[in-house]
Amino acid sequence: MAIDVEAERVIPLPPEQVAEYAMDWRHDADWTQGIRSAELTREADGGGFGVGAEVTRTAYFLGRRINYVLRVASYDFPRLLDMVSVAGPMPMHVTYAFDPYPDGDTLARIRVRGGPGGLARLLAPLMARQVRTNIGKDLRDLERRLTQHSE
After folding, report:
1. What DSSP letter does each residue of 63-115 carry, written as one string?
2. Is the pTM of this model over 0.70?
């Protein structure tokens, strides 16, 4: 894949609290860079959110509006949410991980893999830099939202 970037941040809250907010698609637009809306467009096989569920996101990236659908490939609350794109302008694989850290904190990580094919592959270094910047900001904003709510 043309892009493979990761960001991490220690958030001073327990993993269950961080994951409860971050793994809920209804909060995507509140803390994820560029996302304007997110909608659960397919429930998991057993109903609700889980493996097989699909979330349709509308986002802006590098000044362009994009719509894409992420399908939940793995869901292990509160530790892991792994999603792959099933519709959109390029293949994408997004992983959120929330691991216990000393003193009851959480090591939060986001990894994004994917990227353009064909001639657009030439833009991959620029896109990778922007994605890395964005997911770093995502984790910063996630921490701000959660610590403001817990005060």
Report:
1. TEEEEEEEEEEEEETTTEEEEEEEESSS-EEEEEEEEEEGGGEEEEEEEEEE-
2. yes
